[in-house]
Amino acid sequence: MSEALITRRGALGLAGAAGVYAALAPMFDLCAAPLAYKLEPVPLADGVWMIAGAQEAITRANGGAIANVVVLDTSDGAVVVDTGPSKRYGEALQALARQLTGKPVVRAYLTHFHPDHVFGSQAFGGGALASTEGVAKGLRLLGDDFAAAMYHIAGDWMRGTEVELPGRIISEGSEQIGGRKLTFLPLGGHTPSDLAILDESSGLLLAGDLVFLDRAPTTPHAKLVPGHGPAEKGVRGIAQTRDWLDAIETLIRDAFEKGLDMAEASALPLPPWAEKMALARYELERSVMHLYPKLEAREWPRVDRKA
Ligand SMILES: [Zn+2]
Fold it and tell me: For residue 109, how far is its CA from the centre of ligand 1 (angstroms)?
């Protein structure tokens, strides 16, 4: 390791400054090009737009813009649901909301505390930012770690991004903003605290990344906007989320009981309908990494302690 480092330093020294700059020039060109998110609003209902996230994992190419974000128009100002992955994204979202509604954003709700949904919040300020106590607590505890992870993966897109804590804590109930009544459904499942929001005027259910399982909100909705993936009429999103979770939980538990290791479990075939889903293999691998240690902790005897 150190030998390679010395050799490399020696080589750089020999190459001289001109050579070094020539070698680095393409990198500087890359940095000089301003990074810009292309936010394309799709109308969902009267005065409601969705900006769809890429159906991808977070990468340096997509700048972390993988989650759906929603803009709502009200007579008092624009409302956004989730703020995106970075300060830069939040600023672009603020500009887009103003362009769509002619008004600045007066309220930004966070559906949960995952980094692809919360790091645009600086553009709106803590006073406009609302979340459940659970989300605020999650941000206080893990926000800096999430930010560090995002800088590591998405790089320069994250420049200037810091954790913004919500100045407004919401729970059950609703908020009336400029003629639009938004009803809060504080739930849990995807994270310890997830917020779904029903826009009473359009009937849209803004579900964030919520895992519905058996605690599906039975509130009727005209269309469901998931945290990732297309907005649709009907309950296909809820059913598919539940089916996926059932399928991978069974698959991972069986693999664990058969004594397969994590790499073997991650390589198992999924049901054909699940194989067709975007990021299926990637999410199975992540689930194996999450669930195996839990199964081991629960099922395996501790060798360092007497029972
Ligand atoms: Zn999430």
Answer: 14
| 185 Cβ neighbours under 8 A, 6+ residues apart | 172, 195, 196, 197, 198, 217, 219
How many Å lie between the centroid of ligand 1 and the Cα of residue 108? 17
Give me Rg for the CA atoms of the chain: 23
Give the span between the Cα atoms of 82 and 90, in whole angstroms.
Answer: 9
215: Cβ–Cβ under 8 A, 6 or more apart, which residues? 187, 189
Query: So where are the chain's domains?
Result: 8-233, 240-299
Which of 292, 294, 271, 291 minimizes the C-alpha distance to 281?
Answer: 271
**Look-up: residue for tokens 């008092």?**
76
Tell me the CA–centroid distance for residue 38 and ligand 1, in Å: 21
Condensed to tens digits (0 to 9), the pLDDT of residues 107-164 reads: 999 999 999 999 999 999 999 999 999 999 999 999 999 999 999 999 999 999 999 9
| Tens-place pLDDT, residues 64-75 | 999 999 999 999
* Residue of 190, 159, 242, 221 whose CA lies nearest to 82: 190
Domain 8-233 matching CATH 3.60.15.10: the answer reads: yes
Q: For residue 114, report the distance from its CA to the centre of ligand 1, in Å.
A: 5
Distance 210 CA to ligand 1 centre (A): 8
The Å distance, Cα 176 to ligand 1 centre, comes to: 26
**How far away, in angstroms, is 256 Cα from ligand 1 center?**
26
pTM: 0.73
Ligand 1 centroid – CA 120 distance (Å)? 15
